[in-house]
Amino acid sequence: MVRPSGPPAQLSESARPSKHREHPSKSPKRRREGKRLQRRGDGHEQLLSETERRRLPSQHEHSDLPGHIQDPASQRLTWNKPPVNVLVIRKIRDESLVGPFKELCRFLVEEKQMMVYVERRVADDASLSMDETFGSIRNQLCTFREGYDDISDCVDLIICLGGDGTLLYASSLFQGSVPPVMAFHLGSLGFLTPFKFESYKTEVAKVFEGNAAITLRSRLKVKVVKDMLQRTGQESYGREPQQQEHNGLPHGHTSSEAGKVTLQLQVLNEVVVDRGPSSYLSNVDLYLDGRLITSVQGDGVIVSTPTGSTAYAAAAGASMIHPNVPAIMVTPICPHSLSFRPIVVPAGVELMITLSPDARNTAWVSFDGRKRQEIQHGDCIKITTSCYPVPSICCHDLVYDWFESLAQCLHWNVRKRQARLADISDSSDTEN
């Protein structure tokens, strides 16, 4: 791909979905060679990308040993060839990030000779377009638009500037295999952003050299299916539960091929089903591998990944789970029945959420806080573990980074830390 010399470069029209094409253009060079689906020893399917420039070794080592528990320290990133294309994601509407964004882009373009991809709305920001000293760098940036341009085959590495929301946004851009993500903490929350920007040159150089620790953050594959449950008439909703169910499934439950899939997403944090604007409690049925587990009556229910256990689920009373634990969490939001507590189920099972037959109102669902939509009688939400995790690059290692993020964000041992700093300061004053 030739480095642009005029205005910020844009992805070719042929890389866009057909419904959004405007003008024909040359397709960007593909950077990936293929994908391979491998079954790990713990029974879960893990998609490994055989890319031209990166590989995640040791993810599948010893996979032929039954019952083998993988050592998290073996998850490391190495490069077959140095990375060339870097996607830089900046938190929008935060002027404090303009300076760090300029520094990073200048470093990547001038010193590292990288091809840098940014969002068009970021490149068109007034603070950048009016800066003449940054003009030469800006003209060399490749831009894209979310929902129009497909950059999944063009990026070797992702660098995020902001809070946890920037990493969630990066995950949403890649509905298949995700490049390694390096996240700098420049926002309000830092559970997922272990790097400090003050030493960005050193840290980025280390990542380019390879041999960095990786946390594979599992995602959820979510399907919204309309008319999955055939209505059998209003009178059927008034029957006793014993009459409505057959082998754990309600009457009218169709095969997995029935219904219309209106939305399919990869979700990094959580799927939230709530009562929406209604004043009534939501009433939804929760199924696990086709079996009715319980009816959830309350403000809603959260289905989250271990990564999402420090987000909305934590506020709803769930435990915080390390991202390397293969699990799916189900957390009720203010349940009417206090006996329903947060539960953890094995990764790989299929959860299904539907409106209860006697529900007095509809429900609403959102995915990582986005794409919110209404769920009516006859619709269902299917959730299972995705085979496309997000490889998040660690600053130190995946255990230390996680506990350090908890200590920083939840203010653990603040008094002890302050006391230690005071002792260090007093000792240095005494020596002087």
Automatic annotation (TrEMBL):
Keywords on record: Kinase, NAD, NADP, Transferase
EC number: 2.7.1.23
Pfam families linked to this entry: NAD_kinase, NAD_kinase_C
A biological process term (GO) from this entry: NAD+ metabolic process
Transmembrane segments: none
Molecular-function GO term, any one: NAD+ kinase activity
Record bears the keyword Kinase: yes
Chain spans, region Disordered: 1-76, 233-255
Biased composition (Basic and acidic residues): 35-65
InterPro entries: ATP-NAD_kinase_N (IPR017438), ATP-NAD_kinase_PpnK-typ_C (IPR017437), NAD/diacylglycerol_kinase_sf (IPR016064), NADK (IPR002504)
Comp. bias intervals (Basic residues): 17-34
PANTHER family according to UniProt: NAD KINASE (PTHR20275), NAD(+) KINASE (PTHR20275:SF29)
Assigned protein family: Belongs to the NAD kinase family.
Name of the molecule in the record: NAD(+) kinase
Organism of origin: Mastacembelus armatus
Upper lineage: Eukaryota, Metazoa, Chordata, Craniata, Vertebrata
